[in-house]
Structure formats: C-alpha cells, structure tokens
C-alpha cells in the first residue's frame, strides 16, 4: 500500500532491520512486548494510528495467553482514544469444526496443538466482548496451514463458521493481502466480520508434518508421540504380514509341501 505509514511492535527490532532500511520513510519500529500494556500503549497512542493488525502467535504448544493478552491490551488502548478505529486479528481456520477430519478435530486440536488453539479462541472471544458498544470495528481472519511461497491472490472466502473447501494451504503473502483488504477494501472493511480463508490453487510446496510437530511440541511429548506412531506403524506392518500369511494358508493350504517335494526331486 503506497503512502501508508506503519508502526510495528517487536521484541527484537533487529530482526526487522532489512525492512527498516528499505521502508525507513514509512516504517517505525517500536521495541516492546504485546503482553505488556505500557508497550502496546506506546505503539498505539498516536494521533495518526487508525487501524491495528494483530498477527501474534507462539511457537511451542504450551499453556499461553500471548494472543489473548495482546488483544486485550490493544483494545484497551484503542477504547481510551475514543475514535473510530478498526482492529484485524489473525487466528486459524482450526477454530471452525471441520466435521470432515476426525483425526484433526479430535487428536491435533485437542491434544497436539490444544494450547495454541485455546489461546486463539480466547483472543477471538475477548475481541468480540471488548468491542461491544465501542467505536471499534473488527475483522477476524482465519487461514489454514501457512506456507512460504509467492502470493497467488487466488483466494476463496466464507464468513462466520462456514468453512471454504480448498487445499488447506495458503501462502503468508496471501494472508497479508487479506489483512490489508480488511482495512482498505470496501468489500471487507465494514462492520464486524469473520473471514475463513482458503484457496483452490495447488501450491508447489511440501509440508513436512513431522518437522512441524517437532517445532511446536515440547521435546518429551514429541518423543512420546513419535514412539506411539512407530508402535502403530509396527502393529500395522505385523497385521498385514499375518493377514497375508493366513490368506496364503487358506488359498494354498498345501503350497509349502509341494514346494519342498519339488526341491527334493531336483537337487
């Protein structure tokens, strides 16, 4: 977006130094923590701030309130400014029950990534509750699995709790474009809205599920999960082998005897 000035809150501003050098005339980086009310106030309490985007998240699936506290702190500051503003929050399509993937709904969401999704769900509820009877409107964007790839700008949307049918893989650049649409596009920037986002475009990327699981799961729990998965694989392999053996015995009950006799005659 040309001409738009951006203020960013970062715990480690040095990680954004490439952006700072490229967009120094429009980008201001504020050192701080979104879970600290005073740092958020320093970011937002500016007469020129009119929109706020919250794209917080955590890496490990441990009890956390990072996103929830970030939302609460931001909305508290925005309400004190007492002017019309818009807040855009990124969560996850996992908050919508899929009804088509039992493993994801009952294992991944409830046990493997439960703390991450609980925090996102509380953040959504806090946003809805805190913006009631205020001058703040909001948009919640729920993307599926994020991947690093060029933007496709080929997205499908559903609102509320309706899930679009897509590939369940969306690029980070595409999500960024949706966030901007929720602020600047008249089709998306009015009222309180919840957008579930996906794409039908096949992306040329490979998702390493084991690598993702390792990156978000505490190591002891990760080892336990891998051991369980190995046990399941071994059990399946044993059952397949046993089934083939029994099938062979049923179909060819005297096959081994004939083979032995044949080999004995042709020594």
Tag the structure with descriptive keywords:
single chain; 267 residues; alpha/beta; Rossmann fold; 2 domains; five-stranded mixed beta sheet; two-stranded parallel sheet; 9 helices; 46% helix; elongated; NAD(P)-bd_dom; NAD(P)-bd_dom_sf; membrane
Description:
- There is one protein chain.
- By secondary structure, the chain is an alpha/beta fold.
- The protein has 2 domains: 32-209, Rossmann fold; 221-265.
- It is 46% helix and 16% strand.
- It has helices at residues 17-22, 37-44, 66-81, 102-112, 114-130, 172-184, 209-216, 219-251, 255-265; strands at 6-10, 27-31, 51-54, 85-90, 136-142, 145-147, 156-159, 169-171, 193-198.
- The strands form 3 sheets. Strands 3-4-5-9-7 form a 5-stranded mixed sheet, with helices on both faces.
- α1 (17-22) links the parallel β1 and β2.
- α2 (37-44) packs across α3 and α3 (66-81) packs parallel to α5 (114-130).
- Residues 3-185 form the NAD(P)-binding domain.
Question: Segments where pLDDT lies below 50 for 5+ residues?
Answer: none
Quick one: biggest sheet? 5 strands, mixed
Number of domains: 2
What distance lies between the first and last C-alpha atoms, to the nearest angstrom? 84 Å
In one word, what is the shape? elongated
Structural class estimated from helices and strands: alpha/beta
CATH class of the largest domain: Alpha Beta
Number of strands: 9
% residues in beta strands? 15-25%
Looking at CATH, the homologous superfamily of the largest domain is: NAD(P)-binding Rossmann-like Domain
CATH architect. name of the largest domain: 3-Layer(aba) Sandwich
Strand order of the largest sheet: 3-4-5-9-7
Determine the number of helices (DSSP H or I, runs of at least 4 residues).
9
What percent of residues adopt helix (DSSP H or I)? 40-55%
